[in-house]
Amino acid sequence: MQLPFNLRKANLKVVSLLSGGIDSSTLLYWLRSQENIDEIHALTLIYGQKHQREVDAASTIAKRLGIPHTVVDISAIKPLISKSALTSEQPVPEALETAEYYETLKATVVPNRNMILLSLAVAYAITLDYNAVAYAAHWSDRGIYPDCREEFVEAFQRAVQIGTDQPITVLAPFVRYDKADIVRIGSELGVPFELTWSCYKGGSIHCGVCSSCRERKRAFQDAGVQDPTTYER
Q: Which pLDDT does position 1 carry in this prediction?
């Protein structure tokens, strides 16, 4: 599969948000494959998630690639973003794929998450004297998560230019691609999908029934790529 988003700028130094899931891990591998990216630094932010599994996965992926990785605990902000099943005592919904599926998904929206995480990534890029940040927004998420839409990326890019007076480029190379496309790209790049973590519940294995697990299953099926994940259900 042809890789997305040919970079036009050379000599980029990128801070890339890394959650430890399929999307951000594939992004890291994709950035590593680009000849005109000189340096990459992965950034993982702990913002009050229910579990540590995805942070551990992020560390494993960054180590596998030999990419510098910074993990920062910002979970003190949890009371400010607790209107989500991912950052509160609400149970993670087991999202049945019915007519109410998308309404169920709304329970997993963390208010303004990507704006918060990207803003910190931009600050870190400036601190490192880097000139770009990257995140793995994609088309499949745009219906539920507004900060995964192309118009958000464009608006955030403008805000960064105005708010920092720095030539920081915002990279979202998968924004027009769905999750199955990302799995195909990751497969071609040799992403170790078995080391990534998607499940919102954070058990010993993927639960298989939360919305993130269901999307993970569907992405592998639609991509025609063997799913190495062990699911509880």
A: 46
Per-residue CA distances from 80 to 47, 76, 86, 194, 227 (Å): 10, 9, 13, 33, 36
The boundaries of the domain holding residue 169 are: 12-88+110-194
For residue 41, give the H/E element and its range: strand 37-46
Closest CA to 18 of 49, 51, 50, 62: 62
Give how many domains the chain has, as a whole number: 1
| In-domain check, residue 37 | yes
120 lies in a domain? yes
In terms of DSSP bridges, do strands 37-46 and 69-73 run parallel, antiparallel, or are they unpaired? Answer: parallel
- C-alpha dihedral sign at 95, 98, 104, 108: positive
Contacts of the segment 141-145: beta carbons below 8 A, 24+ positions apart: 141/179, 143/102, 144/102, 144/105, 144/106, 144/108, 144/109, 145/109, 145/114
Return the number of other C-beta atoms located less than 10 Å from residue 68's C-beta: 13
Q: Can you give the CATH number for the domain in which 151 is found?
A: 3.40.50.620
Amino acid identity, position 65? L
177-191 pLDDT, tens digit per residue, is: 999 999 999 999 999
Instruction: Give the other-Cβ count within 10 Å of 158's Cβ.
Output: 10
- Kindly state the tokens that stand for 174: 């998968």
